[in-house]
Design the sequence.
């Protein structure tokens, strides 16, 4: 596949006047972009189903205090408030100390897994890190046999 734009960009592009050669190229690339988006969506569904188990297990271990965890604690109950606090106070996250996260602060609905943030009332923990024993949950991530997801080198 060549370097292509997101499918929606081609919809806009195709509204303009192009030479027959350019029009054919953009039409072909749009079809490739749509196919890519569909494949990505299908893969994302499989990935989300697979990772859900680990998120749930990880949450239980964090909530039960079985894992040592820490994060950078900042004021703000929403991402906008926190961004404002960071900007206003010229915060440099990499210069902050990591603080242990009390197990009672773990609430599944307050975890932003994608951004690595735990929201707790009027503050949040950023850059969360935790230790996982070698014999624990993540000791063997066998994607292929459990969910038919090939290892990265085979993709």
Sequence:
């Amino acid at each position: 596949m060549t370097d292509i734009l997101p499918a929606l960009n081609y919809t806009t592009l195709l509204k303009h006047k192009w030479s027959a050669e350019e029009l054919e190229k953009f039409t072909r690339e749009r079809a490739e972009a749509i196919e890519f988006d569909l494949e990505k969506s299908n893969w994302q569904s499989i990935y989300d189903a697979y990772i859900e188990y680990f998120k749930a297990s990880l949450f239980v271990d964090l909530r039960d205090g079985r894992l040592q965890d820490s994060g950078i604690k900042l004021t703000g109950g929403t991402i906008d408030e926190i961004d404002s606090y960071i900007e206003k106070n010229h915060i440099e996250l990499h210069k902050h100390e990591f603080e242990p996260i009390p197990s009672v602060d773990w609430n599944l609905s307050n975890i932003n897994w994608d951004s690595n943030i735990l929201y707790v009332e009027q503050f949040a923990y950023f850059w969360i890190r935790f230790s996982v024993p070698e014999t624990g949950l993540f000791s063997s991530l066998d994607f292929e046999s459990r969910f038919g997801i090939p290892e990265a080198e085979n993709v």
